[in-house]
Amino acid sequence: MRDFALHRATPRKTNALHDGTLRALVDTMPAAVLVCDARGDIVLSNAIAREIIGAPITGDARGPGGSFDLFRMDGTPIAPEDMPLARAVEHGETTLGDSMIIRRADGTERVILTTATPQRDEDGTISGGIAVFQDITERERAARDLATRERIVERERVLFQTILDSASNPIIYVDATSGWLRVNPQADKLFGHVIRQDAGREQYTSQLRFPDGRPVPFEELGTTRALRGETIEWQELVVVRPDGSEVPVLESAAPVIVAQNDITGVVVVFQDITAMKQLARVRDEWIAVIAHDLRQPIAIIMGYIKLLARVIDPGITQGGKFFGHIMTSAQQLNRMVEDLLDISRIEAHRLALVRRPVDLPALVRSVVDRSGELTRGHVVTVDARGAIPLVDADPGRVEQVLVNLLSNAAKYGEAGSAIGVVIEAADGDACVTITNRGHGIAAEDLRDLFKRFSRTRAARGGRVTGVGLGLYISKALVEAHGGAIEVESIPDHTTTFRFTLPRCSS
């Protein structure tokens, strides 16, 4: 293409293009301006035009140039006669908002948006032309960058959806800003209907239940907690489908975090545990049957031991000692069988509580008195502090928790050390604290202490018998009442178990 150059034509008095007012106006305009006369000679240009073109403007509106070339946006050259000013002067055409590329003498390119219009005398004769153009290089670059980003985003979206679709587990992604959902076919199958992208998470969260049948409150939903920055690892829930069928699942949820801890979304993964539940049910039924069948022979053994202990010659001291060992072992076996039965009830959600108002200090003192054999060698103190409300509890099950904690305090405490029991009010409910002095519990053992069949390393390596069911059952019993249990331990100092029970509502 040709070069626009400043060419001063011989002025004509009747030509308004050479008016000083126009020159001043062109110089002050915020856009690049070129003005040519009727012959196509460039007679005016402003500093912005010279800056964009990047060279002195030498030439006319139609002739070939040397300081820059013009190209259409598709890269094809623009012929001299097709230049906007040339078309304006020679054909009276008006060009509005044409985008084109300037390739300057130094090889750099700029993108301009051009408008050109002819100028006419009073009789309609074309007396010249004006071209106004704007450098839109950065805007075009931003647009290209945006288009590139959009292509990248689309590619990532397709990749993400492909990953979702290929996953075997139901997965739901929730966008933190828009609330839109991305799901895979497995999620639609799990919930029994198509989960729409723009219908919000209520379309599936309303189907979630806790294992006991309670709806999951909004603030406890995996997505809600993950949007707060929490990570949920496999909490057990139940999905209720539109046809009324129920599917037990494990739900995990995690926030998707980018730079500066900005949470952009949440990924929720479900695992159908129907098969696992069926196996667990078969196992629990087998445990319940075996444990139930063991109760009768154990009861017979204990009965005959008691009978023999009454009729045996007191002078045969060695025989009496043997009978005592047999009775102790039979009682221990009986407790293990009862623990197995409790586990089957707990995991089948068939644990029944016979609740009534209970005077907790009186119950604790009574249990301590009856547990003298379990705590032999230790002094057990009971301290009831302040006004303690009646609790809504099953006294037999509370006694079971107390006996287990007192037995552990005696078994794992230092010989001859005291065991302290404190009962007090806590946030309107009642709290029981049992503390013993001894080796304590290592920090790595505390995390799994209330799990089924969990025993500390010290317990496994020592002579204390047990299978690791007592604390698991105690936790389940306390939580079944609506309370909570916790443990604190200082190695080689003290271990404290603390549990709460809800007060009576009336």
Low-confidence stretches: 1-18, 60-66
The value of Rg in angstroms is: 44 Å
CATH 2nd-level architecture of the largest domain: 2-Layer Sandwich
Determine the mean pLDDT. Answer: 83
Summarize the structure.
By secondary structure, this protein is of the alpha+beta class.
Explain what you see:
The protein is an alpha+beta fold and 506 residues long. It folds into 4 domains: 16-135, 2-Layer Sandwich (Beta-Lactamase), CATH 3.30.450; 167-272, Beta-Lactamase (2-Layer Sandwich), CATH 3.30.450; 277-347, Helix Hairpins (Orthogonal Bundle), CATH 1.10.287; 356-501, Heat Shock Protein 90, CATH 3.30.565.10. Helices cover 37% and strands 26% of the residues. The chain is built from 14 helices and 19 strands. A 6-stranded antiparallel β-sheet has the order 2-1-6-5-4-3. The longest helix has 38 residues, at 274-311. It is rod-shaped. The chain starts with 19 loop residues before the first helix and ends in a 5-residue tail after the last strand. Residues 1-18 and 60-66 have low confidence and may be disordered.
Key features of this structure:
single chain; 506 residues; alpha+beta; Beta-Lactamase; Helix Hairpins; 4 domains; 6-stranded antiparallel β-sheet; 14 helices; 19 strands; rod-shaped; disordered N terminus
Element layout with pairings:
Blueprint: H1 20-28, E1 32-37, E2 42-45, H2 47-53, E3 68-72, H3 84-91, E4 95-104, E5 109-120, E6 126-135, H4 137-166, E7 171-175, E8 181-183, H5 185-191, H6 202-205, E9 208-209, H7 222-227, E10 232-240, E11 246-257, E12 263-272, H8 274-311, H9 317-347, E13 356-358, H10 360-370, E14 380-385, E15 391-393, H11 395-412, E16 419-426, E17 429-437, H12 443-446, H13 457-461, H14 470-480, E18 485-489, E19 494-501
Parallel strand pairs: 14-16
Antiparallel strand pairs: 1-2, 1-6, 3-4, 4-5, 5-6, 7-8, 7-12, 9-10, 10-11, 11-12, 13-15, 16-17, 17-19, 18-19
Helix pairs in contact: 8-9, 9-14, 10-11, 11-14
